[in-house]
Design a protein that fits this description.
mainly alpha; elongated; 10 helices; about 190 residues
């Protein structure tokens, strides 16, 4: 994946995005969107980490959800795996859900994320998983099942709302796996 270099005008746009001035922010968003440079994604994520302005957060989330370069999928997934972005993971999952990109090959990553976070993260992951278009490769589904098995091996006596969400994910994965098994019988 060849990433474009972040040019001086794009660096200025990132600074303008933090300014809090509506006009500068709008122009910065236009500049960044027009560039189509996915190398800006980590800088935008860092901006989200450092900034508490809800307007800036909303604009950045919208901008990232509009990315259409399929190479960006890998950047988003790596960011979801990066502990530096722990506080942004639910936001990142929401961006993926609103994205126009197909993350079907990353179904196992979303299953793993659903088991690692809180209830809200599990709900966001369930939403992403249910909206993946597939078809899913068998090894991705098997990996997903391993994450679910590991989660349930640590099962607590009291069921939480998160456990119910994880159970819905397990049912979805099983249905997809049954579909693959049926396809193998047809061939």
């Amino acid at each position: 994946m060849a990433r474009k270099k972040i040019t001086v005008p794009l660096k200025k746009a990132l600074v303008d995005l933090e300014s809090g001035e509506q006009k500068k922010m709008d122009k910065a968003i236009q500049t960044i969107a027009a560039s189509g440079n996915i190398a800006l994604i980590p800088a935008l994520l860092n901006l989200l980490l450092q900034n508490s302005n809800p307007l800036i957060e909303k604009k950045i989330m919208s901008l990232m959800a509009d990315v259409t370069d399929s190479d960006a999928k890998e950047i988003f997934i790596e960011s979801l795996k990066n502990d530096q972005y722990e506080s942004l993971k639910t936001t990142l999952i929401n961006i993926v859900w609103n994205s126009k990109l197909d993350f079907s090959e990353y179904i196992a990553e979303f299953v793993a994320l659903s088991t690692q976070g809180d209830l809200m993260r599990a709900i966001e992951c369930l939403t992403v998983i249910e909206n993946l278009t597939g078809p899913f490769e068998e090894h991705h589904l098997l990996e997903s099942q391993l994450y679910l098995k590991e989660y349930y091996s640590e099962f607590r006596k009291e069921r939480s709302q998160k456990d119910e969400i994880i159970a819905e994910i397990a049912v979805f994965i099983q249905e997809q796996n049954d579909g693959i098994d049926a396809d193998l019988l047809i061939e």
